[in-house]
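<instruction>
Derive structure tokens from the sequence
<data>
Labelled lines for chain and fold:
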Amino acid sequence: MNHLELAGKLFHDGRYEEAAEHYRSARELDPQNWQAVTGYNRAIRRIVPRWHFEMMHDHERAVQYEAAIKQVVTADHLVLDVGTGSGMLALMAARVGAERVVACEGQPVVARTAHRIVAGAGYAAQVDVVPKMSTDLVVPGDLPRRADVLITETVDCGLLGEGILASISHAREHLLSDQAVIVPGRARVLAQLVESQALYQKNTVGELHGFDLSQFNELASLEYFDSRLRRHEHRVLSAPFEVFRFDFHRDGPAPQHATLRVPPTAAGTCHAVVFWFELELVPGITVTNAPDHPTTHWKQAVQCLPHPVGVHPNDPLDVDVRHDGLRICFTGIRKEDER
């Protein structure tokens, strides 16, 4: 079986990374082979999300991270960049004068690309791109010693979805010096009750065109999905309220649960909880994906309720929320007569 045949079989079986390698080998043998060229690209698109490009173009994110890096990185520092992606943050640390930067990236295709970007920028002697998850790094070996600064941007629209709590907790124990600075240092998650039939229809269905399709709701998401609130007709039913607060110098991925008393600010029907993060890189420098902050590439996290809830300003709600170290989930909204 040649590279193209094997690549096709692997792609069909959902083994996209292996398929990409065989398509790449076929392309190297025959650069004009359109099947190899498009096959490689299709496999890459399955393993490298398109949001990487939007993220790299996020000017505010880059400016704020660079400002924070300039504050904390000095010439004698060993910097660890977790989830380097394109290598941009590692290059920023090198440019401000870090003695050495170790940038890890768990996706091999992305890591190889970051390595070429670093070399093209002229920082190959200063920045090492290691194709590993940070939890697989060892000291000494991948890092010559424990790092003085950790930089990461492993957050999704709901903050925790890329494993930031677990990766930083592991790094504190195994990869960082006792006095290491972590960027970001802190974060908090805020939420808001929203009335929006348009958002609700992104995760539920009823009768359409004379057919009852409601059994499809068994396939609906129990947790959040990403969406831009401003692009959907909506009405806010509460002021923003704090859900969780995290100190990355101290907190780990242990599950948490809270019940929050939330007073509605308007009468209406609550279809969803919309939430977002405020990420404090260093004191005074923050990035956020709040709904009123449309310049960021991050969308908001939206969790639709299983059933809409009528709310009124005179009837505060008890909102149950939890996280398992990886995802935040609102598990119940109760009115006074249901307590």
Notes: The longest strand covers residues 268-282. The mean pLDDT is 95. The CA atoms of residues 143 and 308 lie 51 Å apart. The two ends are 65 Å apart (CA to CA).
